[in-house]
Amino acid sequence: MRPWGGLFAPLLLSLLAFATLAHARKVEYSSGTDKHGVTRQLAADRYPALYTGDYRDCLGGKSLFNISKYDAAYYADNMTIVFHLEGSSNIENESLMMQISVDAYGTNRFDMIFSPCNLNIASLCPLTDSVPIRAWAEIRVGPQQIGGIPDIAFAIPDFEGATKLQIFANSSQTEIGCFQAVMKNGVTVSHPYVIVPFMGFFTVVAIIASFFTAIYGVSIPHMRMHHGHSLSVLVVFETFQEIFLSGALQVDWPSILVAWRTNFAWAAGFVWVHPFTEGLASFTGITGNSSQVGNAGSILNKIGSGDVVKKIYGRPLIKEVSGAIMKRSSDFNPNDPWAYDWNGNPVEPGMPLPGTWPGFPGTLSGIHVPVADACLIGLIWFLIAVALVWVFILGPKILLEALAVIKWIQEERLSYFRSHWVGFIGQSLMRTIIIGFLPIMTLTIFQFSVKNTVGPVAVAAVVFFLMLMGLIAVVGYGCRSRIRNGKFSITKDRAMFYRTKIFLVPVWESNLKEHEVEIKSVFSMPFYRIRHTYHDHPEAHMDHDFIKKFGWMSARYRRTRWWFLAYYLGYLFIRAAFLGGGRASPLAQIYGLLVLDIVNFFVMTILNPFESARNTAMGLYILNICRISTTGISIAFLPGFAVDRIITTALGIIIMVIHVFVVIALLILITLGALSARLSLLRNREEFSPHWLDKIRIRWFERMDERARDSWKPPRSHVKKLKEEELALPPQPYFSVATIRRSPKIEDEDEDNQTICDNDDSSSSSSSVVNDLESAQVKRCGRTVSIKSARRVSAGSLPRTGRQSRIFWSSREFGDPLLDRPGSQLAKRLSGINFDTCSIVTSNTSMTTKAGLIKPQSSLQTMRTARSSLTAVGSMIGSIEMRSGGGGGSGTNTPLPSPGFIVDESWMSSKEGALVEATEPPEDDDGRGEKMKKQEGE
C-alpha cells in the first residue's frame, strides 16, 4: 500500500495545481514609463497610486443621471488616468462635454476637459435615453499636468482628496451631472477589524479584574478596598469614548483623524451593521437609493437654452486629448484581464459629500452611519450592553452553583457573591448607565439639532429625560442617605499650588497650618470648603449598608471624596451639551469646551478623588490632558481660520500621536491592574508563587492600606527638607544590639538536661530583646557543637566539688530556691536573659564590637559578680569610644578592627581581669564555700 500511497499524494497535488491554474485569470503586461523616465513592465491588475472610493451626486441629487458605477484612478508608474462610468439617463438626445478634476488637501491638483466623442465613448456620443451609459477610458497625461501631485501623496496615510466628474450639455451649456468620489492611496490607519478585537480583549481583562476584586472576600470594607484599587472600567471606556466623541466638534476634520476614530467607535455605541441602517431608514425619514446616485426621473427631458457656463465654454478644448487615447472599451467586461477590485460604492443616503469631513457627520461617515440614525443606533447598542451585564452576572452565579452541587468547589467558595448576586446586578447596571451617560447625552442633544422626522426626536427626548432625571434622583438619594444627619459647616480656604519636577500640585492651606508646614507656593486660589461632621456615624468606606446600596457611587474614590461622582456627572452633562448642542455655533462650542476641560482639570487636581494611584494617573492626569490638548489643537480646524489642509493634516497626526500614547498608557495600566487583581485574589494564601513576588505583594498591601486610610501627607519637598536637616546634624555616639549568638554550654552534654536547655532556649526567644532583634537565630543544643565546646573548656576551671564528681558540671544543679518561685524578684530579674554576646555599634565608626555578658546566675553573690563584670564591659566600651573619637563627633574617625570578644570559661580562667562566671557553691560543713568566697574576693 505504501507505493500506491506515495504516488497518490503527488498526483492529487498536481491535479489541484492544474485546477488552480485553469481558473486563474490571465495576467496582461504592458510597458510604462513614469515621470522620472523609468520604464518597466506593468501588470494590468495592479493597484493604482490613487483611486476613488465611495461616490455621490455633488449637485444635491439634481443630476439628470442615474449612476451605478463611478471609478477613477491615477497610475503614477505610467502617468495614466483611468475612469469608468456606468448608468442611465432620461435625456432624449444630447451631445456632451466632460471635465475631470482632482483636489488634494484643499488645492486643485489636476484638471482636464474632454469630449466623450474624442475618446470613442459611444454611449455618450451622443447621450440618448435608449442606450445605457457604459464608458471606460484610459488617458495619458504629461508631467506638467500632474506636477501638482507630490510623491508623498502616494504614501501618506489616508490621502485627503476627491475626484469630481462634471457633465455639461452643449445645447444649453449647463451642468446636468456632477459626481464626486473620495480619493485613496491604499494606506490608512483605519483597521477596526484588527484594533477593535485587540482593544476589546484588554477591556474584557479590565472588566474581569474589576469584577472579581468586587466579589471575592467576606469583609465588605476589605472587599471595597481591593475593588477600589483595581483599574476603573469607567476610566477605560471614557478614554476610548474621548477619542471618538472629540469628533463631534463642528470643524473640518482631516481625513486621518476620521479614519483613526473608526477604531474606537464601538466604545461609544457605534457598531455598523447594514441591516440596522436599512431598518431605521424609514423611521428616521431617510429616503434614497443606496445602489445608485442621481435623480433621473421617468419623464424624458429635453435640454433647452440656458446660461453659458464660462468655466467650460470660455476656453478651448485641450487638443492633446484626441491623440492621447491608449485604449477604449465600449462594452466593459468584468472578466477582462484589465478588470479591478478597488472600486467604490454609492454612499448611504444622509451622508456628507465624499472627500469632506465636516463635524460630527464627517466623523460618522467614517463608520457609514447617517446622522439621522446616530442616536437610535447608539441607544440600541447601549440596551444590548445592559442585557450583556445581566448575562455576565448570572453566568458566574449559575456556574458556581453547579460546581458546588457536583462538589468541584467548596460550599463556602465565593459565598457572599452567591448569596447577594441580585445586589451585584444592581451595582453593575448602575455602573453601566454611568459609562453610557456621556455618549447617550451627546447623541440625544445632537438629535434635537438634526432637522428630521418627529419620531427620532421624540425617542431622544424620552431617553434624555429618563436617564438624566433618573441619575439625578439616584445620586441625590445616595448623598442624602449619607448626610441626612450631622452638621454642615462652610469654611473659607485656599488651594496652594507648589512646583514639583513635572506638575504644579495643590494643597489646602488649612492642612499646612494644622501640621505647621511651610511651602513655597507658585500661586493660590480661594475656595470654600463644605464640611459634614457626624461623629456617631461610621465612615463611608466602613458603612456596610451604604456600600451595599451605593458602592457603585463611592467605591473608587477616597474616604473623604465619596461624593465625587455627583460632581463628575454634572461635568459630563455640560460636556455633552457642548458636544451635541454646539453644531450651530462652532466658535462657542470649541472655546466653551476648552474652558470647561481646563476648569475641570484644576478642580479634579485639587480634589484628587481617586484612591488608587493607577486611576489617578489615568483618570485625572492623562485623560484630562488628552482632552485639553485635543480640543486646543482642534481650534485650527475651524472653517473661519482657513488653515492650509497640509498643516491641518500635520496637526491631525499630532492629535493621533497623543491618542496613541494615551492608549498605550491605558493598556499598560490594564496589565498592571490584572496583575494586582491576582495579588488581591490570592491575599489569603500564606505561600505565594513565584516567591520573588512575595515582597512586592507585601508592599502592595501596605500601600493599599495606607491609601485607604487617606491620611494627610506633607509635600515631598517639605519631607526632603526635613531629611536634609536631620542629616546636617552632628553625629551622636550610641550603641545598639545588632546580633545575638548563643555559644554552646557544658550542660548541653547532659542528656537529662536536654529538656532544660530546650525550655531555656524557648524562653529566651520569647524575651523582649529577641523580639526586637529579628536577626537572632534559633539556638542549637546539639551534641557535636557541645563536644567542641567541651574541648575548649579545661577541667581546672571548675570547682573542686564539681571536678571530683564529674567533668561535665552545670550550675543548674546548684540552683537557688528563689528561682523556683515565679513571683520572686530574682526570677523576674533573670527571666529572658540567656545570651552570651552582644554587638556594640558606635555612630562614629559604624564598628560592631562583641563583648561578653554575664550568664544568668543563681544567687545574690552571682548577681554582684555580674554587676562587676558589666562594669568591666562598660569600661571596655568607653575605651572603644575614646579610640573612635566618640562623644563629640568631630574630627577624623579612624575605623578600628572589631575586638570580637567571645567569652568562654577557658578565656576567663587564663586572663587576668576577665569576666569570670561565678557560681554559688552548695552549703556544706567542711567550709569549702567560705574558702571559695575568699578566693573570689582576692
Description:
There is one protein chain. The N terminus and C terminus are likely disordered. The chain starts with a helix and ends with a helix. It is elongated. Helix 5 crosses helix 8, helix 5 packs parallel to helix 19 and helix 9 packs antiparallel against helix 11. The strands form 5 sheets. Strands 3, 4, 5, 7, 8, 10, 11, 12, 13 and 14 form a 10-stranded antiparallel beta sheet that branches. A 3-stranded antiparallel beta sheet has the order 16-15-17. Strands 1-2 form a two-stranded antiparallel ribbon. The protein has 3 domains: 231 residues, Immunoglobulin-like (Sandwich), CATH 2.60.40; 382 residues, no CATH class; 192 residues, no CATH class. The longest helix is centred in the C-terminal third of the chain and has 37 residues. The protein has 938 residues and is of the alpha+beta class. A hairpin with a 5-residue loop joins strand 1 and strand 2.
The helix content is 40-55%
Strand content is 5-15%
Structural class based on helices, strands and sheet pairing: alpha+beta
Sheet with most strands: 10 strands, antiparallel
Radius of gyration: 44 Å
Oligomer: single chain
